[in-house]
């Protein structure tokens, strides 16, 4: 879903971000069950579960504490967080499918299998999320939106 700054209400935007965050958290919990997977290792190494929980809490804080964020840096940053979480969710789904395909193949020793690229893209997206969380916190700490 493409979200444009200044067009969506604060409540709708924060609700969308929180719903998406909860979807990703459920996916992460599912992948965390099997500790031998590449996805589990990535979850632990990047601390994505905590990052998504922080996003959820920040979106909730924005919904409760800020009257209007339309057209502000805070809104733009929250939209960018939504975009990267969407990318993370999509990459998690793609990675799961690629790993399933890889595990079902007879010859499983390809060095440059499709899942490696998806894994790398997911890791890059998680790193971007971390930067965007910091931007969101910076915007919120300016306290000019009340």
SSE map:
Elements lengths: L9 H23 L5 H9 L1 H18 L7 H32 L9 H28 L5
Helix pairs in contact: 1-3, 1-4, 2-5, 3-5, 4-5
Q: How would you describe this protein?
A:
- Helix 1 (about 10-30) runs parallel beside helix 4 (about 75-105) and helix 4 (about 75-105) runs antiparallel to helix 5.
- The protein starts with 9 loop residues before the first helix and ends in a 5-residue tail after the last helix.
- The protein has helices at about 10-30, 40-45, 50-65, 75-105, 115-140.
- It has five helices and no strands.
- By secondary structure, it is an all-alpha fold.
- The longest helix has about 30 residues, at about 75-105.
- It is elongated, with a radius of gyration of 17 Å.
- It has a single domain (about 10-140), classed as Up-down Bundle (Single alpha-helices involved in coiled-coils or other helix-helix interfaces), CATH 1.20.5.
Count helical runs: 5
**Overall domain count:** 1
What percentage of the residues does DSSP assign to strands (E)? under 5%
| Mean pLDDT score | 85
Radius of gyration: 17 Å
Query: Low-confidence segments, ≥5 residues, pLDDT <50?
Result: none
Q: What form results from the Cα inertia axes? A: elongated
Number of strands: 0
The structural class is mainly alpha
Q: Tell me the name of the CATH class.
A: Mainly Alpha
Q: Tell me the major beta sheet.
A: none
Under CATH, the topology is which?
Answer: Single alpha-helices involved in coiled-coils or other helix-helix interfaces
